[in-house]
User: Fold this.
Amino acid sequence: MSAVASSDTSDFWVLTALEPPFSQRNERGQLEGYLIELVTGILAEANIEQPILAAPWERLISEAQQKANVVIFPLARTPEREDQFHWVLPLTANVYGVLGKKSPSHPISNIADLTTVSPIGVFENDFRHKLLLAENVQNVASYKDYDLAVSDLISGQLSSLFFSDAGLRYFCFKQQADCSDMKILYQYDTLTSYIALSKNTDTGHIKIMNDAAERFFKSQKFKQIQQSWLQKLRAQGPLKLHIKNGVLNLW
Assistant:
C-alpha cells in the first residue's frame, strides 16, 4: 500500500497533451496509453485522487505558469524551460528534427538554412514552433493535428515537418502510407520528456510527487507497464524502441 500523503493534495491539477500513441483517447473517449498508465500509477502511489485532463499545449503551459500544484506531462526538458518547472521523473526520450523527402543542395547545419526545405510544418504553439518563430524562419505552417500535418507532408503540400522520426513512422503506419523515402534533413536535438510540476508548487506537494515517483519507479508495477506497452507499441508501427535507465527511448 502506498504511503499516506502528509499534505492535502486535493488541489492538484493533472494535465496532459494528447500525443498518440503514448497518450490518446480511445473509442469511448477515455484517456489511455503508455504515459497515462505510468502517471496514473504515480498518482495512486501519492494518494492523489485527481483525474487526468487533456488540453491543448498552449493551455497546459499557460496553466502551469499561472497556477501552483499543476502536474503536467509529457513536457520536453529544454534549456529555456529548465528554471520554469520542477522536473519530477523522465518518461521518454526522442530525436527531434526536420524530416522530408527533398534533399537540399547543401547539408542543413543550422536553423537558418531551413528555408531551403520550406514550407515547414510544425505543431501549433509547440516548442519547435516557437523556435522557428524566434529564428525568423519563413514559410512555417502550424497545425493542431498531427494526422493532418503528416498527410500534407506525404501529399507534398509541405516540403518538411519539424517532428520526430518515431512520430512520423507512427502516423505513416496509421495512414497506411509509404514513408520509406522520408529522412531527417536536419537533426535538432535529442530531448527527454518528463512529468513536471508548475514552478510555484508548494514544497510539501513537490515532496509528495518526488517521493511517489521514486517509489513507483522502483516498483514491479512500473516494470510490468513498460514491458506490456513495449509489445503494444511495437504492434502499432515500425517504431524503434528501447528502454534505458527506466526511460523509453524512441530510436
Residues 1-6 have pLDDT under 50 and may be disordered. The helical segments are 34-45, 57-66, 127-134, 146-155, 165-174, 203-217, 220-234. The longest helix spans residues 203-217. The first strand starts at residue 13 and ends at 16.
